[in-house]
Amino acid sequence: MRLEAGARFERGETSAGIAAGLRVGKRQVEKWRRAWREGGLAALRSKGPMSTERISPEQWERLEREPGRGPLAHGWDEGQGWTLARVRTLIGRMFRIGYPVQGVWKLLRRHGWSARVPVHRAIERDEAAIEVWKAEVWPRVKAPRRTWAPISVSRMRRDRV
């Protein structure tokens, strides 16, 4: 967007017109225009990611192995598994580096990790009975789909016609 704004600056468009066209605030466009006046299009180019990782690649490799040992090995119960707060604490314990919870989430996503929610199922669950119910009972219980039919838009009731 900044580079598009730069091209529009060169064509002489107004800040209000650029803001409306790019769907950004007028003040933001004016900020870009100041940077463009001082350094041209190069000043509008991205300067890269705003946050950098605080742990080295070697530390990341060590950290990546730890969840495999399980939460119990690190002093937590197995109930919740690995949460962002637990990974944050683990990073602090292992490397003496402080990360906010949001920073831990960004770090994990950057390295290809994603959130997993465990599936909780009742101990008494009978898979065979569930499949029989789905195949035999549910089709009988489920109401048939309504088909489209025109309705009267008249205010008169049908029994009076």
From TrEMBL:
The organism's superkingdom is given as: Bacteria
InterPro entries per record:
Homeodomain-like_sf (IPR009057), Winged_HTH_dom (IPR025959)
Segments forming domain Winged helix-turn helix: 79-136
Q: Coiled-coil intervals in this record? A: none
For this protein, the record's Pfam families field holds: HTH_29, HTH_33
**How is this protein named in the record?**
Winged helix-turn helix domain-containing protein
